[in-house]
């Protein structure tokens, strides 16, 4: 495992990380989470991603119990949460001062931790002044409950606005963005955010490298029983990710993957790692075998030569 700086910050994150979205607290229980997190840790992963919204808080509870059981030295790993969707009440949603402070405190209780290393605004909140949001994060940083704060799926203009207000007022500016990034979703990371990397030194913790499993190839012949997209609660995701043409592209990518000796999943993850502006690629897994396969994607980055990248690009263009 190699480690990359989170943008221009001094924090070094493993180039592959493990996230809890959809799986923990919903699709898998504590035993499977422990097995996956242990396998990831043994492969060199030092960053574990979570959010208050995942499983209605159950994902953080699961991860917290696993941390406690494994007894890892806290200084050796990185944990995140994301704040926006915290509950049903109007005061439990969004990026108000109240919800950011209370949301982080509740996340810490669920995770059984004194602090999180990274905390993200899970989405932009047009109803809350950016000054209020920035000041709330600055308070948490000064209290030692959050080390770095950032954004997720914000526009570049909104991020610049938050950074400018923070710097102008002696407050802690955002450090990183968590955008979706994969072979099907590219524009924001590759184009819109370019000024953020150059001018602000922004880091990225990208999510969904397999496009919710589509790029693994497991949906090439339909939706397998028990898979993520087979879950009734994932009907909204199924409609979103199974766009026309994606399965055909995935089948074509499988040919390229076979030529360089890897799986389609490993090809897709390695492709994300080729981007120097990606600090870490967040992977997901419901069982140990998936973790092990994903971790070996790092072995194939060197195989993505210019000619192979050209083949991939032509496949995407049809």
How would you describe this structure to a colleague?
The protein has 318 residues and is of the alpha/beta class. The chain has one domain (3-317): TIM Barrel, CATH 3.20.20.100. 42% of the residues lie in helices and 13% in strands. It is built from twelve helices and ten strands. The protein has helices spanning 30-42, 58-70, 97-111, 130-143, 156-168, 187-192, 194-200, 235-241, 246-260, 264-273, 288-295, 306-317; strands spanning 3-5, 12-14, 16-19, 47-49, 78-83, 116-121, 146-151, 176-177, 203-206, 280-283. An eight-stranded parallel beta barrel has the order 3-4-5-6-7-8-9-10, surrounded by four helices. Strands 1-2 form a two-stranded antiparallel ribbon. α2 (58-70) crosses α3 (97-111), α4 crosses α5 and α9 (246-260) runs antiparallel to α12. The radius of gyration is 19 Å and the shape is globular. The two termini are 33 Å apart. The mean pLDDT is 94.
């Amino acid at each position: 495992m190699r480690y990359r700086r989170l943008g221009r910050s001094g924090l070094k994150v493993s180039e592959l990380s493990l996230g809890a979205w959809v799986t923990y607290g919903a699709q898998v229980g504590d035993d499977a989470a422990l097995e996956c997190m242990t396998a990831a840790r043994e492969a060199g992963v030092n960053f574990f991603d979570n959010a208050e919204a995942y499983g209605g808080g159950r994902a953080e509870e699961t991860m917290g119990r696993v941390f406690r059981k494994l007894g890892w030295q806290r200084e050796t790993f990185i944990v995140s949460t994301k704040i926006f969707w915290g509950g049903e009440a109007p005061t439990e949603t969004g990026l108000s001062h109240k919800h950011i402070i209370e949301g982080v405190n509740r996340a810490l209780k669920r995770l059984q931790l004194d602090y999180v290393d990274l905390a993200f605004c899970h989405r932009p909140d047009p109803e809350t002044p950016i000054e209020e949001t920035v000041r709330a994060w600055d308070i948490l940083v000064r209290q030692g409950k959050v080390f770095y704060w950032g954004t997720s799926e914000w526009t570049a203009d909104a991020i610049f606005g938050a950074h400018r207000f923070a710097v102008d007022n002696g407050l802690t500016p955002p450090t990183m963005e968590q955008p979706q990034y994969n072979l099907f979703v590219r524009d924001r990371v590759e184009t819109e955010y370019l000024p953020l990397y150059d001018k602000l030194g922004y880091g990225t913790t990208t999510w969904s490298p397999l496009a919710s499993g589509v790029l693994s190839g497991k949906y090439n012949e339909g939706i397998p029983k028990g898979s993520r997209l087979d879950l009734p609660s994932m009907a909204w995701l199924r409609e979103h990710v199974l766009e026309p043409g994606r399965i055909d592209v995935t089948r074509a990518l499988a040919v390229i993957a076979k030529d360089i000796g890897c799986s389609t999943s490993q090809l897709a993850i390695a492709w994300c790692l080729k981007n120097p502006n990606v600090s870490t690629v967040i992977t997901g897994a419901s069982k140990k075998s998936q973790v092990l396969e994903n971790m070996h994607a790092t072995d194939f980055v060197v195989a993505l030569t210019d000619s192979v990248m050209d083949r991939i690009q032509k496949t995407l263009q049809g």
